[in-house]
C-alpha cells in the first residue's frame, strides 16, 4: 500500500488527468461540501490522511488553524508547497501514522475537530482500523467533533445490488481499500462518541454510478463527467432524509467526543 501511494505522490495527476487522492473530483467536492458547514470558525482542526492537502487548504480559511497529517512524505511535501503558493498561513503539515498520532498530539494538542476522508480504508484489517479510531479519539478534546467519510460496505453492497438490477457490473474497490461496516463502526465508537448525525451522499452516488454509465454507454464512465459535476451541485440541496442511504458508501458521520 505504501509503495502505491509513494508512487502516486510523484505526480499531481494520474494518466487520466485525475488527482490520485481524489480520482472522483466531484465526490470529493460533495464530501467537502458536507464537512464545511460543520466547521466552527474558531476551531483547531486536525486533517488526518490529508494527501496532497487541497482539502486541508479549503478548510483552512474557515477555521483558526489546521494541521494536516499524512503517512506519505511526498504528499506532505506537495501540501506544504501548495500552502506556500497559496499564501495560507494558518495551516501546517507533517508526516504521521494514523496508528500512532502521539506526534500530532504533541504538535497540536487536543483539537476541536478531527477530519478523515478515505484514510482508514487504507488499513488492511478491522483491528487496525479500530486502533486508528482510538488514536483519533485521543486527539479530540471533550465536546469536539470527528467528521469522517471513509467507505461503508453496506452502501457499496446496496449500490451494487442496484447496478445488478440495471445489468451493470459491480463496482470493485482497489485491493488496498477495506470498507467498514457502519454497524461495526458505530458499535466501536459508541463508548467515546455520540453520533450526532450522518450526511448522506446517496443522491450523488446513484447519479454518478447508475445514471452516468447509462448516458455514456457504450463509452466507459468517467469520474470527471458533466453528470457528476451536476450531481455534486444538486447534492448540496438534497434533504438529509436517509432516502438513499442504502446506496451510499461515502456519507459523512458527525461524531461528538464525550
Q: Helices and strands in order, then pairings?
A:
Blueprint: H1 2-8, H2 25-35, E1 44-48, H3 54-59, E2 65-70, H4 73-86, E3 91-95, H5 102-108, E4 111-117, H6 126-137, E5 140-149, H7 153-165, H8 182-189, E6 193-199, H9 202-216, H10 226-235, E7 252-257
Parallel strand pairs: 1-2, 1-4, 2-3, 4-5
Antiparallel strand pairs: 5-7, 6-7
Helix pairs in contact: 2-10, 7-9, 9-10
Account of the 3D structure:
The chain is α/β, with parallel strands linked by helices and 258 residues long. 40% of the residues lie in helices and 18% in strands. It contains 10 helices and 7 strands. It has helices at residues 2-8, 25-35, 54-59, 73-86, 102-108, 126-137, 153-165, 182-189, 202-216, 226-235, and strands at residues 44-48, 65-70, 91-95, 111-117, 140-149, 193-199, 252-257. The protein has a 7-stranded mixed beta sheet with strand order 3-2-1-4-5-7-6, with helices on both faces. Helix 2 (25-35) packs parallel to helix 10 (226-235), helix 7 (153-165) runs parallel beside helix 9 and helix 9 (202-216) packs antiparallel against helix 10. The longest helix is centred in the C-terminal third of the chain and has 15 residues, at 202-216. The chain is globular.
Amino acid at each position: 500500500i505504501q509503495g502505491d501511494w509513494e508512487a502516486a505522490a510523484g505526480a499531481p495527476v494520474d494518466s487520466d488527468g485525475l488527482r490520485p487522492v481524489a480520482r472522483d473530483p466531484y465526490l470529493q467536492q460533495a464530501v467537502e461540501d458536507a464537512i464545511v458547514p460543520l466547521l466552527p470558525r474558531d476551531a483547531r482542526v486536525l486533517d488526518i490522511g490529508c494527501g496532497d492537502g487541497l482539502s486541508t487548504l479549503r478548510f483552512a480559511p474557515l477555521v483558526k488553524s489546521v494541521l494536516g497529517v499524512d503517512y506519505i512524505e511526498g504528499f506532505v511535501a506537495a501540501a506544504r508547497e501548495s500552502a506556500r503558493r497559496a499564501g495560507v498561513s494558518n495551516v501546517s503539515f507533517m508526516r504521521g501514522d494514523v496508528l500512532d498520532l502521539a506526534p500530532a498530539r504533541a504538535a497540536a494538542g487536543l483539537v476541536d475537530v478531527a477530519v478523515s476522508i478515505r484514510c482508514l480504508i487504507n488499513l488492511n484489517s478491522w483491528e487496525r482500523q479500530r486502533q486508528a479510531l482510538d488514536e483519533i479519539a485521543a486527539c479530540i478534546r471533550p465536546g469536539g467533533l470527528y467528521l469522517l467519510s471513509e467507505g461503508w460496505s453496506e452502501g457499496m453492497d446496496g449500490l451494487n445490488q442496484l447496478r445488478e438490477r440495471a445489468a451493470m457490473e459491480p463496482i470493485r474497490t482497489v485491493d488496498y481499500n477495506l470498507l467498514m461496516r457502519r454497524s461495526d463502526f458505530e458499535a466501536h465508537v459508541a463508548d467515546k462518541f455520540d453520533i450526532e448525525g450522518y450526511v448522506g451522499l446517496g443522491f450523488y452516488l446513484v447519479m454518478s454510478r447508475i445514471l452516468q454509465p447509462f448516458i455514456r454507454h457504450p463509452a466507459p464512465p468517467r469520474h470527471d463527467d458533466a453528470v457528476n459535476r451536476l450531481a455534486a451541485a444538486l447534492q448540496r440541496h438534497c434533504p438529509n432524509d436517509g432516502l438513499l442511504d442504502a446506496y451510499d458508501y461515502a456519507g459523512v458521520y458527525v461524531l461528538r467526543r464525550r
